[in-house]
Amino acid sequence: MATTTYKPTPASEARAQEVAERCGLIWVPRTDSVTRLIRGQGAEGAYVVGPGRVELRDLERRRIAVHAGTYPLVAKFGREHPLVRAVAPLDEPPPARVIDATLGLAKDAIHLAGILGCEVVGLERVRLLVCLAEDGLARLAGEGAAWSAGAARVSVEEADAR
Fold it and tell me: Taking CA 89 as the corner, what is the angle to CA 85 and CA 90, rounded to the nearest 5 degrees?
């Protein structure tokens, strides 16, 4: 199911409805707690859209979202970080474009795009995660933080890397 936070903006409501249609979920207007809505609909979880956040929630109140996470720590190591060094060895110029064939929550993509300054094309086969990545990256790109430029350079494509 897809819903919104309490007191949604028109944009949040429209995005939740769009995700519901795109992912084959039911759209449930926010009238109660997310846990009660999930139980009432017999759903496994909810895609929750709000003006400042988008996340997946389940009955145990666990939340999954795209966030900057360990970006400050990884950025501190810069090109010396093992992931970054694997993609761009120190004795070579960074690539202009990287394909992240298992985008998931976009953590590695944000790190690579932010530290190397490259474009990252993220491939994700799970449509719900595609939507979550799109929403989360857009939010991070607009935060004006250290990771924002990197998040803005990550694009998301629904595709199976196999």
Answer: 100
- Tell me, yes or no, if the pTM score tops 0.90: yes
- SS3 at position 137: helix
Per-residue pLDDT, 129: 98
Strands of the sheet with 154-158, listed across from one edge: 97-100, 119-124, 154-158
Whichever domain contains 110, its CATH number is 3.40.50.150
Range(s) of the domain holding residue 10? 2-64
Of the candidates 64, 80, 96, which is a domain's last residue?
Answer: 64
Distance of CA 74 to the CA centre of its chain: 18
At 49-64, the pLDDT tens digits run: 998 899 999 999 999 9
The CA-atom distances, in angstroms, between 144 and each of 78, 85, 131, 147 are: 19, 26, 22, 8
